[in-house]
Amino acid sequence: MRKLLILLFGVFSVVSFGQSKYEAGMQKAMQQWQSGQSKEAVAMLDRIAMSDKENWIPVYYKVLISITGGFSNPQADAVEDIVMANRVLIDQWLETGGSEWYVLKGMNETLELITDPMNKGMVQTPIINKAYDKAIELDPTNPRAVYSVASFQINSAKFMKVDMDYYCKMLEKSIELFDKQESDVPFYPSWGKDWALKTQEMCKVK
Amino acid sequence: MRTLLCLLLTLCVGAVQAQQILLSGTVVNDKNKPIENVNVYLEDSFEGALTDAKGYFSFIVTDTVVSGVLKLMHAQYGNLDVEINTKENYNEHFVLSSQDEVMGEILIIANSKNKRERAESIGLNAMDVVSTAGSPGNIMGVLSTMPGAQTNGEDGRLLIRGGRAEESGIFVNGVRVFQPYTSSVGNVPVRSKFNPFLFKGISFSAGGYSAEFGDALSGVLQLDTSDEIDPSRRDYSISTVGGSFAQTHQWGKNSLSYSLNYLNLGAYTAVVKQRYNTKKPFSTASGEMMYKREIKDGGYKLYTAVDFSTIKYEQEIQPSNRVDTLGFKSSNVYMNSVFFKKLTPYMRLDIGTGLGYMDYTGDSNDLSLKKISWDVNQKVKFSYQWNGQFLSFVGVDVQASKLDLTRSEGSRAEAFGTDTNRWALFFENNWKITSDLSLRAGLRTSKYSEISDWTVEPRAMLTYQVTPKHQMSFSYGVFNQAVNLEQSLAVKQEDWMQANHYILNYTYEFRKRLLRAEMFYKDYSKLLLTPLGKPSEYAQLGEGYAKGFDLFWKDNITFKNFSYWVTYTYIDSQRKEMYWNEWIQPSYVVKHNFSVVTKYWIDQWKSQVSMTYNYSSPRHFYDMNTTNKTTYESSPIHNVSMSWAYLFSGQKIVYLSVDNLLGRNPVYAYQFNQRGGQPDVTNASAKRFIYVGFMWTISADKKKNQLENL
């Protein structure tokens, strides 16, 4: 799972000139993130969020960056604090952000789980399932929501018996949705297809 | 393409004309210490940098002039805006003052463990309880592997640092539990009554605890149910000794859970030979109900438990070959209701109510003891967050108890009854003096209807955060306790029993490994003592002490999929108490207690295998009937237990547990006969206890329908 999540996303498709200050800032943040400067990227997103308090997109990426950073090293000391800080932000934006934020919530709770799967598995699993289910309920065409459900189950196969055929089909479905997704909102989340393809390899093994 | 080229050209031309202006500076706090990770930037362009460990930042702006607002942003230190207008390089020194002055909102979720509270108690969760081998599902089982805690084989109750079982207070959501254990007769060890999954947090304090709690000379165990409403689900479980069914139903902002359990040892004891002869097998029928409701800025939780248990058996006692016929019948009801609400962002109100009822009849040969008891506990607490450094709470704690006891032997019957009240007021401040130093200081005062004096109990704890990893703390407290109701039938109590605790704690935490070392000294006074030759009278002239240290090491990370903890407790305790008007080590005290708990997750088998080893040094028993005061020593105890949980699927678990894998047969205790001679020995009822169970959970969300709807 970790290796998967280190993979970078294809969020850099929006390249336009004559950018607004917002777009330039967002783009810089994305570049910094891609080149491994997560801390600087988050600082940039903080600045943008400060100037545009109604917009959930900079905060979304800030949370996403900290979660994916946590996935790459779930045993780090700070991870539990990161999860707590993210929870505060997620609770603030859950209503306005909708489906995409429920995906983040599920991911953040998954991060909490993988810090100690043995002891936290039982408590976290229903919370994660509930968040992803809500994400699908709000937007059944959100490929990230569908992918997240499938991926969470497929990765759980390590710990218990999972109906792989079923969730692999779901994963395929998410890839179809990834190909169909489009949004007019600049920097609207579009990541995930690479991860889905990577997860699909686990289906082929089984 | 052409646009791109044009744009690049324009940019380059611009770059040539503009100059490079270096903006730099340092940021420190009001103690002149550098602040790291301050986000410094120009509001207009988002250009900026983060400060390094020395508080230094620098960035280059390519422009003819820099004018506007330079913003400094930090999570703890807040924000600072500085006007800037420069054509040349700019360097400035900034001071950000700590935001602690800002009022922190009071935490609505009580008992959230922060680092400061580490020293005070050890936190556990339900998984720690069920995945620890030795005593499946019994909270006391895992607690006996904690520093400062002990349970004895023939008793099962929680003993804290050389204290009697009665000296440990058990609380659910801050409200006292009157009958925390299953009923028992003879030497059948008791278990905790509570299902560990009810609780979000289990926090154990081996002394020096907060002024919020009282009437427990040695220590407290706090069990807290989660405040969040539960998602709908259904659980079935079946095992070699019974079965249970549980369901949770969630609607809107409410959730209702209930469970029905039936346990019967009949089939098990028919197959596995026990040391006793079953007349009527041990059976318990019980039900639990939990209702939760979320309200604005608060919540309500109601927990109710009802159980009915019975057993009847014959046991031959060795070496005197006496045959005892023992049995009991017991019904219990317990209710616990909690209401909490944030009245203002800085004030929280907690109202807790506990109600307990017990009807117990125990038979031991011809002697029959019938007890009916009622207990009510009402607690109201206001907490107020004055500012970031100061939190206070004040509260009232009232308890009323009533006990009717009938002792009959053949046709002779004696009836006794008593009812008592106690009131307590408590007040406590948590003061963060500096960022590394904090003080908890409180006062509790109580009145008991049987005792004319009020108690005054100061409690304090000073915590010093040496570095983020090291912490030291010192706590002190005065604790009083009245004798329990059953004893009070025979004793005219004149004063409170009293203990002083002095505890020095050192905690070292790094990368999810925890080392905790504690030294303690407790002195006891005004304990019950029987004057020589008057076995039915008591005077409060007893005294005692307990001193020692404990070590606790927990590591979840060094070995992959393997977590373990190691505990060692040393207690040197002597008392002049009950029949012993001379200093002796009480027979319930174990001097050396050592445990190793391991849990290993095996990927290929989808199983968790746990093993627990427990060593207790021999206890001392004294024959009071002979003049030569012989001391008998119980066996040293080496107990290895193992459990295996296999995850069939996420929802189905098969569970196997074996207690006392080595099949050792220690002497737990001695019982002295009035006739004298060799004392009778108490052993476990069987060498091993084997438990096989199957658990099945059905969540409300129906996975199978999802794919079709997408």
From TrEMBL, chain A:
Record's protein name: Tetratricopeptide repeat protein
Record InterPro entries: TPR-like_helical_dom_sf
TrEMBL record, chain B:
GO cellular component: cell outer membrane
Entry membrane topology: Multi-pass membrane protein
Residues annotated as domain TonB-dependent receptor plug: 137-220
GO molecular function terms listed in the Swiss-Prot or TrEMBL record: siderophore uptake transmembrane transporter activity
Residue ranges of domain TonB-dependent receptor-like beta-barrel in the record: 296-661
Alphabetical GO biological process terms: siderophore transmembrane transport
Signal peptide: 1-18
Keywords tagged on the record: Cell outer membrane, Membrane, Receptor, Signal, TonB box, Transmembrane, Transmembrane beta strand, Transport
Domain of life: Bacteria
UniProt subcellular location: Cell outer membrane
SUPFAM superfamilies tied to this protein: Carboxypeptidase regulatory domain-like, Porins
Listed name of the protein: TonB-dependent receptor plug domain-containing protein
Organism: Myroides albus
